[in-house]
Specification:
With 243 residues, the protein is an all-alpha fold. Helices cover 49% and strands 0% of the residues. It has one domain (9-19, 26-177, 189-224). The protein has helices spanning 9-13, 27-34, 41-47, 52-70, 77-89, 115-134, 144-153, 157-174, 200-204, 212-224. The relative contact order is 0.19.
């Protein structure tokens, strides 16, 4: 667990860590997060302003909010940790990682105030990974449910809202969606290989000044601390982000 030794300050200030489980959870809420198509057009539109690699970086960052929220409550947080590592690992090239398969037999418990949100998060990330590897123009829209889930379980929602608003604004400005000419369909394929990479520091470190070189250095440092014996989703033949 060398890559996530300390929670980012914004997550600490949101009171996610060690906070009691005091949010509502039922089948209706869960269904709404799994299929958030209604009433979230604004968020969907905003997410579709960012590029594919930026969307994967945002996915990893959102998953980290959930990781710290449940870290002390369930060992399933280890599954989140591995996926966070793998998403950052695959930012440069989606072919570097294995599919983030989860619950293929649909036999993992999905009820309860912890199992339910965890299942939604892991299944959501599985679909995001599939769309990223496919080059689907539907990728960004798949993040809507994950955003709503993080907000739902976060104690101090205004802290999350402020972080999200600032983050999406920066992403749209620095990593705009270059896929604007492709119609939104399941069959359209987009090649994101030429997009610039983004790193964890961009999302959580206020003092980080972005440049493509700085992002690559940060990603390389992250990759160096992956334990390949624990994280089987990562291909240990990859050592560095290309300079």
């Amino acid at each position: 667990m060398r890559n996530l030794k300390k929670a980012p300050k914004v997550i600490q200030k949101s009171k996610c860590i060690n906070h009691i489980i005091d949010y509502k959870w039922n089948e209706k809420i869960m269904s709404g997060l799994l299929d958030p198509s209604e009433g979230n057009d604004g968020l969907d539109s905003t997410l579709n302003k960012i590029g594919h690699k930026a969307a994967i970086g945002l996915t990893a960052s959102l998953l980290e909010w959930i990781y710290w929220r449940f870290k002390e409550y369930t060992t399933m947080s280890d599954d989140l940790y591995q996926r966070i590592e793998t998403l950052w690992y695959s930012v440069e090239n989606h072919e570097d990682s294995k599919p983030l398969l989860f619950d293929p037999e649909l036999d993992i418990p999905i009820s309860g105030f912890i199992n339910g949100p965890m299942w939604v998060a892991l299944m959501n990330v599985r679909m995001i990974d599939v769309l990223y590897k496919k080059g689907s123009s539907m990728l960004q829209s798949e993040l809507v449910g994950l955003v709503l889930l993080v907000r739902h379980i976060t104690p101090k929602k205004k802290k999350f809202d402020k972080w999200l608003e600032s983050t999406l604004s920066k992403l749209a400005n620095q990593f705009p969606n270059q896929n604007v000419q492709i119609e939104f369909s399941e069959d359209a394929v987009y090649d994101s290989s030429a997009e610039p990479v983004v790193c964890r520091e961009f999302f959580f470190q206020s003092t980080f000044t972005y440049s493509n070189e700085a992002a690559k250095l940060a990603l390389n440092d992250f990759i160096l601390h992956i334990d390949y014996e624990i994280n089987s989703f990562c291909n240990n033949k990859k050592k560095f982000v290309n300079g």
